[in-house]
Write a structure and sequence with these properties.
alpha/beta; two-stranded antiparallel ribbon; Rossmann fold; globular; 7 helices; five-stranded parallel β-sheet; binds adenosine-5'-diphosphate
Length: about 180
């Protein structure tokens, strides 16, 4: 069965604004926001903690089974929010939004969050080396990967979310209305 709504990945280095964007987009569209970090924690989909970085090592099979059970492949309308995107099968995903942030702004946000030492450094390196953008481009078709700035200039949050909403409208026209009319 064809999906009625697209599935959207919002990715980027920690602190760029994924959750903030995903929550507003979910509110405006009625889509379901799935914070992968939250699910991993709540459902216990992790093996061990990387002690040095303080991050969970995710049990990917369990996570994928859980996501499949949400109906994202049949119904759509899901926003996946995570600092990685290579795990999600291409057939599930219609748009990949990679949020980017000025390094000074990001540094402040991460410091405020209590990141320090190696964890802070690695995340800064990841943003500077645009690791998530490369990961998105390697895993998905170029035309579905969009890079948006989320440094907090000129109310970029509303602007970015507005752009994604317009894209959703267009997706519906191209994929649902057209097919219904055939
Ligand atoms: P992530 O989910 O990527 O870790 P968050 O959404 O938690 O990032 O955002 C981190 C912090 O940065 C929050 O305090 C949030 O309010 C702020 N922030 C994120 N995006 C913007 C933006 N575009 N403009 C202003 N502040 C932002």
């Amino acid at each position: 069965m064809a999906r009625k709504n697209p599935n959207i990945v919002i990715t980027g280095t920690p602190g760029v604004g994924k959750t903030t964007h995903a929550e507003l987009l979910a509110r405006n569209t009625g889509f379901k926001h799935i914070s992968i970090n939250q699910i991993v924690k709540d459902e216990g989909f992790h093996e061990d903690k990387d002690e040095e970085l303080g991050s969970w090592i995710v049990d990917e099979d369990k996570l994928l089974d859980y996501l499949e059970a949400t109906g994202l492949d049949s119904e759509g309308g899901v926003i996946l929010d995570w600092h990685a995107c290579d795990l999600f099968p291409e057939r599930w995903i219609d748009l990949v939004v990679v949020l980017r942030c000025d390094t000074e702004v990001l540094y402040d946000r991460l410091e405020k969050r209590g990141y320090k030492g190696k964890k802070l450094e690695e995340n800064m390196d990841s943003e500077i080396m645009q690791v998530l953008l490369e990961e998105a481009r390697e895993n998905y078709k170029e035309e579905i990967v969009v890079e948006l700035d989320s440094s907090g200039k000129e109310e970029d949050l509303e602007g970015n979310v507005g752009r994604i909403e317009q894209w959703v409208e267009q997706w519906r026209k191209d994929n649902v209305e057209e097919k219904d009319g055939q």
